Amino acid sequence: LKTEIQPPPFLDAIGGDGGRMNERAGLLGQLDNIDRQLDRGGSMDTMDRHQRAALEMLTGSAAREAFDMDREDEALRDRYGRGPWGHYTLMARRLVEAGVRFVTVDMPHWDTHSKIKEGLEVRLPVLDRAVGALMRDLKDRRLLDDVLVVIMGEFGRTPKLNDGQPGIPVPGRDHWGQAMSVVLAGGGLRMGQVVGATNARGEFPAERPLTPADVLATIYHVVGIDPRRSFLDHSGRPVPILDGGSPIAELI
After folding, report:
1. Among 74, 204, 221, 226, which residue carries the largest CB count within 10 Å?
2. Where are the domains of the chain?
3. Which of 107, 105, 82, 84 is nearest to 93 (CA)?
């Protein structure tokens, strides 16, 4: 099934001479002046640079070209899958090629408190197809070592099935914060390995327990950010970007 997804409407709103966008940028600058008067850490200067770069990207041709899926080979689009999530995953690769440094592909509806079998039978093949195509595509384009792919959610699911939800008496699995799986690939990491393990029932970490802070520290390390770094807030108070955690040594 092919799903044709149109470019985001903001591209049409930018059209013409970009006057409306420039007016909004001017208004944003006036509002930012309020924060700038309180800023003691220089964060507003950094934000200004990022906002200028974003505005230049939107008003130039790069954004419109990146969102133009007609430029892609039909066979490659089929490989990713013609549904929304295949489309969005391929779009993520196009945005990276256009210079975007951070892209999120949101694939919702994994909260399977009931009907977990039916739900996963629909979603897992879509995820597998899109991610497999992305990894192969990045490798073919010699981008895999420069792009870190992270696949994760907020938490795991209970090791045992429940009896479903009120009104939907079909088994599912609830929230479980004690153990979960995360996929990290590319970015120059040492791939093809599993780090850590749970007990036989998938309840708790039994080997090499890791925390969300460890995962984030690894991501920061790969993209060149010191995970021990702190920033100054508007009052000059240092705020660490991460509360603990260390890069996962087996991966780097």
Report:
1. 221
2. 20-251
3. 105
